[in-house]
Design a protein that fits this description.
single chain, 185 residues, mainly alpha, Hypothetical protein af1432
């Protein structure tokens, strides 16, 4: 499946434009992580793009989120490795399985950090990623009240990938800046 087909599949199941933008941001971050870690950017990018494909049909129910995604992605013929990573970004639905593979951790940390970066951009007067500094995102990371729904412990899984927090945020921010127009930021 190529990116165009994947985006069409995502839009078939997700109508909320902010959620689509989150998936686009996640795709950009996962592609950058794959390039940095010597993995397949196309495979990882598709995982980022499609990871929340079932969020509307499961109404965000963490006990079900990603289970429907696995069914949709398998029916679309996507590789088992991608389907497994998508499932593992939400451990709550995985029957006690824990993230262990770099792909699992990259998707979980990568999609989570997009929320923190986006929230940081939205408090700037121009609401643009170009204005956001890595140090500002790191500072916001430490303030648990800021973007309180963002799970900082998942972002910190970047360290299991061999990336320090600052390095990870810089990579993610750079990837998202490359898609700023598409993200509306």
């Amino acid at each position: 499946m190529d990116r165009t087909q994947a985006l069409a599949l995502l839009r078939e199941h997700v109508s909320n434009e902010n959620m689509v933008k989150h998936c686009l941001a996640s795709e950009a971050v996962l592609r950058a992580l794959a390039a940095r870690l010597g993995a397949d950017p196309d495979l990882w990018g598709l995982a980022g793009l499609l990871h929340d494909i079932d969020v509307e049909m499961t109404a965000g129910d963490l006990s079900r989120h990603t289970l429907e995604a696995a069914r949709i992605l398998a029916a679309a013929g996507l590789p088992a490795e991608l389907i497994d990573a998508v499932g593992m970004h939400n451990e709550a639905a995985q029957g006690g399985r824990r993230r262990s593979e770099p792909f699992h951790r990259a998707l979980a940390a990568g999609e989570t950090v997009t929320g923190l970066i986006t929230a940081t951009a939205l408090v700037y007067p121009d609401r643009k990623l170009a204005s956001v500094k890595t140090s500002s995102v790191v500072k916001r990371m430490k303030d648990k009240r800021f973007a309180a729904s963002v799970d900082r412990s998942i972002i910190m899984e970047c360290e299991a990938l061999g990336l320090k927090l600052e390095e990870f945020i810089e990579l993610a921010l750079g990837a998202m800046r490359g898609r700023a127009a598409e993200l509306g930021l």
